[in-house]
Specification:
Calcium-transporting ATPase, cytoplasmic domain N, Rossmann fold, 7-stranded mixed sheet, 54% helix, 6-stranded antiparallel sheet, 13 strands
Length: 422
């Protein structure tokens, strides 16, 4: 039997197509600003024509002045440059959903990373299984947690599920599973409620003490491992130690971002203090916020923005949605949860962190091109206007020069997009 989980617009290809269509329909703020600047310069043409006719009473000279229109070059050049940039970004591994996102991305000075799945690979490996309940062996502990964890895409739960599959452990029947976002999972197996998740969830919220295993936990954390706690009713069930791998491209990508003008690199994680600070020091991060809850992420982003920072947030989890929306521009990794994909302004489609630096470089390059096009348009058209006003250019000559300038700027914008990706 073949079952279709997603069809039509619900498929990955359908969602990507929809993102592109929505992005092409949304104007960027820079387009609006360009249009306003162009509209203001219409008055220059009208005033110049009136002054020329008033001084010379020459209809042809006034007609020549009317052939000069600043708005054509400015209004057409900007959207073409933005569409070309979105094409370049897609080729480089990033879908930019709007022109506003492109503009915001070009101006960022602070990047905040949610650690797991961004700076580290989105896969964890269980290194140690420590049964704590009497009569419980490793296989039983793994089977119970994996049977509940297979219903969530969280990387920690997925690691336990993969371990169970590797050991060919049988599925354990259970009732409906509850998900506590940012904390853990709970479900009933037989007459018992099985819970697993963070220490804060199991010990602080559910009041299950793991005090007897403190020394083991300290030893595993000192080795740079993360801990997953599991409880049965009100008693400890087991602990799992997991290790994640730092992305090979993480350090070079952070160095590129600094070279492009990013002043502050920040990591936020639910990891314990020692592990988080060790990773932050290894990567040369400016700030490390450890043992954070999901709601802390959005608050951190808001505080940075209120302090004047232009913030990009990079995440991939269900609980990253509020932070992605709170940032000036949110970026989701390719394996991100659906809610992260929906709320992000930029979706990275290749599982490599350096695609982030590529997209930022394209955004900065495009904004520089737009500013350059504006200067070219104003400078050249002003020279043509002066020639028309002084009688050096006939109306036909003025029209050819003006339209030629417009076409040249458009070709420059399109060639810039193709040439940069050649």
């Amino acid at each position: 039997m073949i079952r279709a989980d997603r069809v039509g617009d619900a498929t990955t290809t359908g969602r990507i197509t929809r993102y592109i269509q929505e992005a092409l329909e949304r104007p960027a703020e820079i387009e609006t600003v360009s249009e306003q600047l162009a509209d203001k310069r219409v008055g220059i043409t009208l005033a110049s024509a009136a002054a020329v006719f008033g001084l010379t009473r020459n209809w042809r000279r006034m007609e020549s002045v009317f052939m000069v229109d600043y708005s054509c070059t400015v209004k057409l050049g900007t959207p073409i440059a933005i569409k070309s940039a979105m094409y370049r970004a897609a080729k480089a591994g990033g879908l930019i959903k709007s022109g506003q996102a492109l503009e915001a991305l070009a101006g960022i000075d602070t990047v905040v990373f949610d650690k797991t799945g961004t700076l580290t690979h989105n896969t964890l490996q269980v290194t140690d299984v420590l049964p704590l309940a009497k009569g419980l062996d490793e296989g039983q502990a793994v089977a119970m947690v994996a049977s509940l964890g297979e219903h969530t895409a969280h990387p920690i739960a997925r690691a336990v599920v993969e371990l169970a599959q590797a050991r060919h452990l049988a599925h354990v029947a259970h009732e409906e599973v509850d998900f506590i976002v940012g904390h853990g999972v709970a479900g009933r197996i037989g007459d018992n409620v099985i819970r697993f998740g963070s220490r804060r969830y199991i010990e602080d919220d559910e009041h299950v003490s793991f005090a007897a295993a403190r020394d083991k936990v300290a030893k595993l954390k000192a080795e740079g491992k993360s801990m997953l706690y599991a409880a049965r009713d009100n008693e400890p069930l087991a602990m799992f130690a997991l290790r994640d791998r730092l992305r090979e491209e993480a350090a070079p990508t952070l160095a590129r971002l600094r070279a492009m003008g990013v002043k502050r690199l920040v990591m936020i994680t639910g990891d314990a203090r020692e592990k988080a600070l060790a990773l932050g020091e290894a990567l040369g991060l400016d700030e490390v916020h450890y043992e954070q809850q999901p709601e802390d992420k959005a608050r951190l982003i808001t505080a940075l923005r209120e302090g004047g920072a232009k913030v990009a947030y990079v995440g991939d989890g269900v609980n990253d949605g509020p932070a992605l929306m709170a940032a000036d521009v949110g970026l989701a990794m390719p394996r991100a949860a659906d809610i992260a994909r929906a709320t992000a302004d930029v979706l990275l489609v290749e599982d490599r962190l350096d695609a982030l630096a590529d997209v930022v470089a394209i955004a900065q390059d495009t904004m520089a091109l737009i500013r350059s096009n504006f200067r070219v348009a104003v400078g050249v058209n002003s020279a043509i206007l002066a020639g028309a006003a002084t009688g050096r250019f006939a109306p036909v000559t003025t029209a050819l020069l003006h339209n030629g300038t417009t076409i040249a700027v458009l070709l420059r914008s399109m060639a810039h997009g193709r040439g940069a990706m050649a």
